[in-house]
Amino acid sequence: MSELVIKDLHVSVEDKEILKGLDLTIKSKERHALMGPNGNGKSTLLAAIMGNPKYTVTKGSIELDGQDVLNMEVDERSKAGLFLGMQYPSVVSGVTNSDFLRSAINARQEKPISLFKFIKEMDKAIEQLQMKPDLAHRFLNDGFSGGEKKRNEIVQMMMLKPSIAMLDEIDSGLDVDALRIVSDAIIKTQEETDMGLLIVSHYARFYEYLKPTHAHVLLDGKIVVSGQADLVDKVDQEGYEWIEKEFGVFA
Ligand code: ADP
Ligand code: MG
Ligand code: MG
């Protein structure tokens, strides 16, 4: 059982305050949808949780199972069980996908994973995501299509088995079939590992597949409305204007 607890989080980027007192708790097995108009701080939140040095936490706390995440180095955060599937995964030439993943897994455990077990798990993940089998041996994200990069983020999630996984617009640019395949893989991984999920997306269709247990709207640096899956439908039908009006915020 894991729990990520964020309290009164304030984050600045280049001396501009982006998050202005954000509260959020995510537990094992939960699926949180995080929505909000562009530029309101969703990616900033995820970057701050992972310890991206461009994002300065000026106030508040982030704890994972009672441990102070803000005191951890970036690699300690992922070892502690945090994972970010990125909107724009970076290309790493010269490092194969499988080498990258094996060292990431080995960095998290005392005994290195056996080659046999690693290959078995990687094959399973690649098959689940319906990706080309040669993917393991290609340089990380090098020459991958947009959709392949996104699927590859999910392969990494499946292999690393985080306790809390955050996915930033992982559905953008996926065709309908890929969306279904990625959603199924996310759900299956969660069923097998009990991870907690924080999913940033603009699209009701993705959430229809994923069936969030909680939904939130981030506006002007704070979570201003929380609810359940019906909040996703309301935003899909009515947009954010009703919330902006209610809170006097015009993003
Ligand atoms: P969202 O993900 O909700 O669309 P972001 O967190 O990406 O929003 O951005 C929130 C605000 O912070 C925007 O005004 C954006 O320009 C700014 N911002 C985010 N990251 C950076 C960065 N690395 N450098 C400069 N400004 C940034
Ligand atoms: Mg954005
Ligand atoms: Mg974003």
How would you describe what is shown here?
There is one protein chain. The chain has helices at 42-50, 74-79, 97-108, 115-128, 146-160, 176-193, 204-210, 229-238, 241-247; strands at residues 3-13, 16-27, 31-35, 55-64, 67-68, 82-85, 92-96, 139-140, 164-168, 196-200, 214-219, 222-227. By secondary structure, the protein is an alpha/beta fold. The chain has a single domain (3-247), classed as 3-Layer(aba) Sandwich (Rossmann fold). α4 packs across α5 and α5 (146-160) runs parallel beside α6 (176-193). The termini are far apart. The relative contact order is 0.18. The model has no long low-confidence stretch (mean pLDDT 93). One magnesium ion binds at residues 38-39, 43. One of its GO terms (molecular function) is ATP binding. Pfam families: ABC_tran. Belongs to the ABC transporter superfamily. Ycf16 family.
- The CATH topology is Rossmann fold
- Total number of β-strand segments? 12
Structurally, the number of domains stands at 1
Give the averaged pLDDT, no decimals: 93
Query: How much helical structure, as a percent, in the residues?
Result: 25-40%
Enumerate the distinct ligands.
adenosine-5'-diphosphate, magnesium ion
Question: What is the rounded Rg?
Answer: 18 Å
Annotation field: number of helices: 9
CATH top level label: Alpha Beta
β-strand percent reads: 25-35%
CATH architecture: 3-Layer(aba) Sandwich
Order of helices and strands: EEEHEEHEEHHEHEHEHEEHH
Spatial strand sequence of the major β-sheet: 6-9-10-3-11-12
Task: Specify the biggest β-sheet.
Answer: 6 strands, mixed
Terminus-to-terminus distance = 37 Å
Structural class, please? Answer: alpha/beta
Report the uncertain regions.
Answer: none
- The 3D shape can be described as globular
